[in-house]
Fold this sequence. Notes:
This protein is mainly α. 74% of the residues lie in helices and 8% in strands. The longest helix has 47 residues, at 71-117. The mean pLDDT is 89.
Amino acid sequence: xxxxxxxxxxxxxxxxxxxxxxxxxxxxxxxxxxxxxxxxxxxxxxxxxxxxxxxxxxxxxxxxxxxxxxxxxxxxxxxxxxxxxxxxxxxxxxxxxxxxxxxxxxxxxxxxxxxxxxx
Length: 119
């Protein structure tokens, strides 16, 4: 996990700030939390939202207000998005291993060629 990812998951925004930034009522944010769309951290009974939470909330708001998606649809979209991100990370991990494997094969071929030259 990179530094940017850690920073994005760090809870820093209070509900009043989030509601102003996203231009929604705090009760709407509480409803989205009840629906399970976001899970802000609580410190001393105070909700604190991360940058990731803000991105998710922004997507939820766009889906519901601009595209007319209902809450069940939003839930499905968020779950699919989460799976897609997980698959993307797995693919990147596998690709790096593949790259490493190809590098090893290349090194082995070079070593074999060099050994043939010295025979």
